[in-house]
Amino acid sequence: MTEDFGMEAAVSLDAMIERHIAALLATSEAVREWDERRAAGDVTNVAYANALLEVTKEEEAARLRIVQHQPCDDRESGLKLAYIAAYLFATGGSLKQDEMEAVMRTAEPFA
């Protein structure tokens, strides 16, 4: 796990954002497919529900990597804050208290 963390540290914020957007799109596509199957009267099986759960977990992990990322300069700090704000606005969601604290703490030196 330590090796995996070290590899993630080398990934740029831009790449993390791209991964998160891809995960959001995959989640959206899975939900759309599920809705179409339900509307057509197809029975949703456990495998499909598990696939939906998996893409949802991937989206959460990608988002958490961004939340916990320590920006290296003003540009990254601004990008991180803007992306998180855009994500919250677009989804109508919110961050958990510890996630919000992490965002503020990691952006603090540059904000």
End-to-end Cα distance, whole Å, is 31 Å
Percent in strands: under 5%
The global form is elongated
**Helix proportion range:** over 70%
User: What's the number of extended β-strand segments?
Assistant: 0
Are there runs of 5+ residues with pLDDT below 50, and where? 1-9
The profile of the biggest β sheet is: none
Domain count: the total is 1
Q: What is the radius of gyration?
A: 16 Å
H/I helix tally: 5
Q: What is the arithmetic mean of pLDDT?
A: 85
> What is the helix/strand order?
HHHHH
Structural class: mainly alpha
Question: Which helices and strands, and how do they pair?
Answer:
Elements: H1 2-9, H2 13-39, H3 46-68, H4 74-91, H5 97-107
Helix pairs in contact: 2-3
Can you tell me about this structure?
With 111 residues, the protein is mainly α. It has one domain. 78% of the residues lie in helices and 0% in strands. The chain contains five helices and no strands. It has helices at residues 2-9, 13-39, 46-68, 74-91, 97-107. α2 runs antiparallel to α3 (46-68). The radius of gyration is 16 Å and the shape is elongated. The relative contact order is 0.12.
Keywords for this entry:
elongated, 111 residues
Short description:
The chain has 111 residues and is mainly alpha-helical. The protein has helices at residues 2-9, 13-39, 46-68, 74-91, 97-107.
